[in-house]
C-alpha cells in the first residue's frame, strides 16, 4: 500500500470528525506562532541589555525591561498552555473516536463473511486478532501523530524557517539545506529497516498464535510430557524476534548518531555565520541566540522525521493487513431475497461438486434427496464428506458445480438469514458461550420466557440436573461437562424449534442414558420436520427412514436400512464393523441368559 492509498482509506474515518480536525489545526497554527516568541524575546533582551550596559541608570531601566519580558513570557506561556491542552485533548479525542470506529467496522464486517474466511489458515484466530489489533493501533497512532505531534512540529519548523529567512537569507538557507540532508539519511535508514519490519509482523503474529495454541492444547502437551518441545518451538521464534529487534535497534542508533552530527554541524555554521554578521556590524548581538533557537525549532521536528517515517511504515505494513481484512469483499455471504413462510423442507442436491478453499476436494457428483417428515441419515467413514453436505445445506459454502434446491428453489435465491432461521444445527462439539446456562439456551430464541427455556431444557433431559446445581440456571455454562454442554446445545435447538434439523453426531459425547433420552426427544420432534442425522451409532442409523452411504466424497448406496444392507457394500461393511465393535454377540448372550 502506498501513502496515498493509506490516506484514501483512512480519510472517511477522520472526516467524520471534521470539527475536531479543524479545531486541532487552528490551535496548531496559534501554537506554532507562540513557539517563536521565546526566540524573539531572547533577541530583544540580549540587544536591550547590551545597549543598557552603556547608559548610567542601567539598573532602574533594567528592571523595567525585566518586568516587560516576564509579563510577555508568562502571558505567552499561559496562552500556550491552553493551546497545547486544547490541541492534545482534541487530537486525543480524535484518536480515541477513530480507534473505536475502526474496531467496530472490522467486527461488523467479519461477521458478514463466509465460513471459508475463518477456516482459512491465514486467518487463524490468533493471527487475525494480532492483525486487527496491530492495524488499529498503528492506524490510530498515525492519526495521533499527524494531528497531535507531527503537524504542530512541522508548523513550528515552517514558521521558524520563515523567521530565519526574514532575519537573513543565508541563515535561512542553512536551516533549509538541513531538511533534504536529513531526509536522505532518514530514507536510507527506512530502506534498511523495511524488510526487517515486515518479518517482525509475521513473527509477532506467529508468537500470539503460538501462545493461543499452547493454551488450547495444554492437556495434550502435559500428558505427553512435551513441555520442552513446545518451549523450544517458542524459543526459536523468540530468538528470531530478538535478533530482528536488535538489528533494527542497531541500525536506528547508528543513523541517529549520523543525524545528530549533521545537526551539530548546522549549529556550528549558524554560530559562525551569525558571529560574522554581528562582527561586521550587519546585526546586533541578540541575533546569535535568536538564530540558534530558531534553528532548533527547525531541527527539532526534522529530528522526529525518522520516527514519523517509522510509524508511517508501520502503519503502511500493519494497516495493509487491516484493510485486507476489511476489504475482503468477495468473502461476503451472498443472500437472495426469497422467503417462503410455509416451508416444507424438501432438499435436492443435483450433480454437486465441492472443494474447500484450500483445494481439498470434499464432494464429487452428489445427487440426493432429503424429504420432509422423515429422518435421513448420512453414513460413512470419517472424512467421507458428511459434514460437508450439511455445510452446503446451511449455505456456509457454495458448491462449485451442480445445484442445491429447497422446495424447488435454488438455495442461492434464499434469504440467508431466513434460511438459517429455519434450520436447527446440532454439532458433535457445540459451542458454549461464556455466560450462564440460561443465556446459552436463550441464544436459540432471544425473547423466550423463562418457562420456555425450562421447557426446552426438559426436552433435552437436562432440566433436573440444572436444578440440582447451586446456582441453577445462573451457573456458568462453561463449567458443565461435555455431555451436559451438548444437552444445553440441544435445548437451544429445541427452543429455536425450526422446521429443518441437522444433527452432526449429536450424541457422540453423551453417556448411554443421556443418548437414549435424547434419542427419544429427537424422535418426538421429527414429526412435520426435515431431519438429517450424521451418526456412528447403529441405533440411530437403524431408526432413519432413508440412508445415504458415502465414501471419499461420493454417494455409493442409498435406501432404507434393509435395502441398503442387502446391497452388501460400504454400508454393510460399516454396519457390521460397528456391530462387532459393540460386541453385539456377547450382548445378545447376556439378554438370552
Ligand atoms: P465427514 O463429516 O464425513 O467426517 P467432512 O465433510 O468433515 O467429513 O470432510 C470431508 C473432507 O473435507 C475431508 O477430507 C476433510 O479433510 C476436508 N475438510 C473438511 N473441512 C474442511 C475445511 N474447513 N477446509 C478444508 N478441508 C476440509
UniProtKB/TrEMBL annotation:
Residue ranges of the TM segments: 20-42, 62-83, 142-163, 169-191, 261-279
Positions of the ABC transmembrane type-1 domain: 22-314
Topology versus the membrane: Multi-pass membrane protein
InterPro entries to which the protein is assigned, alphabetical: AAA+_ATPase, ABC1_TM_dom, ABC1_TM_sf, ABC_transporter-like_ATP-bd, ABC_transporter-like_CS, P-loop_NTPase, Type_1_exporter
Domain ABC transporter: start-end pairs: 347-577
One Pfam family recorded for the sequence: ABC_membrane
Localization in the cell: Cell membrane
Keywords recorded for this protein, A-Z: ATP-binding, Cell membrane, Membrane, Nucleotide-binding, Transmembrane, Transmembrane helix, Transport
One Gene Ontology term of the molecular function aspect: ABC-type oligopeptide transporter activity
Gene Ontology CC: one annotated term: plasma membrane
Predominant location: membrane
Source organism, top-level taxon: Bacteria
SMART domains, sorted: AAA
Name of the protein described by the UniProt record: ABC transporter related protein
Amino acid at each position: 500500500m502506498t501513502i496515498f492509498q493509506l490516506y484514501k482509506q483512512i480519510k472517511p474515518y477522520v472526516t467524520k470528525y471534521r470539527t475536531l480536525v479543524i479545531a486541532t489545526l487552528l490551535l496548531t497554527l496559534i501554537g506554532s506562532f507562540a513557539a517563536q516568541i521565546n526566540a524573539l524575546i531572547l533577541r530583544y533582551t540580549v540587544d536591550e541589555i547590551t545597549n543598557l550596559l552603556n547608559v548610567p541608570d542601567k539598573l532602574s531601566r533594567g528592571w523595567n525591561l525585566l518586568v516587560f519580558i516576564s509579563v510577555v513570557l508568562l502571558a505567552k506561556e499561559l496562552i500556550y498552555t491552553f493551546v497545547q491542552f486544547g490541541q492534545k485533548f482534541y487530537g486525543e479525542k480524535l484518536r480515541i473516536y477513530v480507534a473505536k470506529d475502526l474496531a467496530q467496522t472490522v467486527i461488523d464486517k467479519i461477521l458478514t463473511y463466509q465460513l471459508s474466511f475463518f477456516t482459512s489458515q491465514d486467518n487463524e484466530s490468533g493471527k487475525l486478532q494480532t492483525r486487527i489489533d496491530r492495524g488499529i493501533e498503528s492506524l490510530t497512532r498515525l492519526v495521533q501523530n499527524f494531528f497531535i505531534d507531527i503537524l504542530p512540529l512541522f508548523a513550528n519548523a515552517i514558521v521558524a524557517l520563515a523567521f530565519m529567512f526574514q532575519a537573513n537569507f543565508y541563515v535561512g538557507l542553512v536551516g533549509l539545506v538541513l531538511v533534504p540532508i536529513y531526509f536522505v539519511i532518514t530514507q536510507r535508514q527506512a530502506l534498511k529497516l523495511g524488510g526487517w519490519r515486515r518479518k517482525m509482523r509475521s513473527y509477532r503474529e506467529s508468537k500470539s498464535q503460538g501462545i493461543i495454541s499452547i493454551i488450547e492444547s495444554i492437556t495434550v502437551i502435559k500428558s505427553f510430557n512435551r513441555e520442552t518441545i513446545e518451549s523450544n518451538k517458542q524459543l526459536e521464534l523468540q530468538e528470531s524476534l530478538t535478533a530482528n529487534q536488535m538489528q533494527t535497534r542497531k541500525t536506528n542508533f547508528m543513523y541517529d548518531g549520523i543525524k545528530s552530527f549533521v545537526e551539530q554541524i548546522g549549529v556550528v555554521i549558524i554560530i559562525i555565520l551569525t558571529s560574522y554578521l554581528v562582527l561586521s556590524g550587519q546585526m546586533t548581538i541578540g541575533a546569535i541566540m535568536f538564530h540558534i533557537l530558531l534553528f532548533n525549532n527547525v531541527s527539532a521536528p526534522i529530528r522526529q522525521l525518522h520516527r514519523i517515517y517509522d510509524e508511517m511504515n508501520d502503519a503502511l505494513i500493519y494497516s495493509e493487513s487491516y484493510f485486507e481484512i476489511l476489504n475482503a469483499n468477495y468473502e461476503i455471504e451472498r443472500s437472495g431475497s426469497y422467503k417462503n413462510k410455509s416451508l416444507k423442507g424438501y432438499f435436492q442436491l443435483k450433480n454437486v461438486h465441492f472443494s474447500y478453499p484450500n483445494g481439498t476436494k470434499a464432494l464429487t457428483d452428489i445427487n440426493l434427496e432429503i424429504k420432509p417428515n422423515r429422518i435421513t441419515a448420512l453414513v460413512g467413514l470419517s472424512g467421507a464428506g458428511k459434514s460437508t453436505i450439511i455445510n452446503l445445506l446451511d449455505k456456509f459454502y457454495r458448491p462449485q458445480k451442480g445445484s442445491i434446491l429447497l422446495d424447488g428453489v435454488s438455495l442461492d435465491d434464499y434469504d440467508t438469514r431466513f434460511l438459517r432461521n429455519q434450520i436447527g444445527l446440532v454439532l458433535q462439539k457445540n459451542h458454549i458461550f461464556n455466560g450462564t446456562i440460561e443465556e446459552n439456551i436463550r441464544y436459540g430464541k432471544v425473547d423466550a420466557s423463562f418457562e420456555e427455556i425450562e421447557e426446552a431444557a426438559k426436552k433435552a433431559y437436562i432440566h433436573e440436573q440444572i436444578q440440582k446445581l447451586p446456582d441453577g440456571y445462573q451457573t456458568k455454562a462453561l463449567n458443565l461437562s461435555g455431555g451436559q454442554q451438548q444437552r444445553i446445545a440441544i435445548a437451544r435447538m429445541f427452543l429455536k424449534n425450526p422446521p429443518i434439523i441437522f444433527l452432526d453426531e449429536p450424541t457422540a459425547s453423551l453417556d448411554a442414558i443421556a443418548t437414549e433420552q435424547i434419542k427419544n426427544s429427537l424422535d418426538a420432534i421429527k414429526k412435520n420436520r426435515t431431519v438429517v442425522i450424521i451418526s456412528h451409532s447403529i441405533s440411530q442409523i437403524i431408526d432413519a427412514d432413508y440412508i445415504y452411504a458415502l465414501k471419499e466424497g461420493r454417494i455409493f448406496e442409498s435406501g432404507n436400512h434393509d435395502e441398503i444392507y442387502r446391497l452388501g457394500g460400504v454400508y454393510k461393511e460399516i454396519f457390521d464393523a460397528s456391530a462387532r465393535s459393540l460386541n453385539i454377540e456377547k450382548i445378545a448372550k447376556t439378554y438370552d441368559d
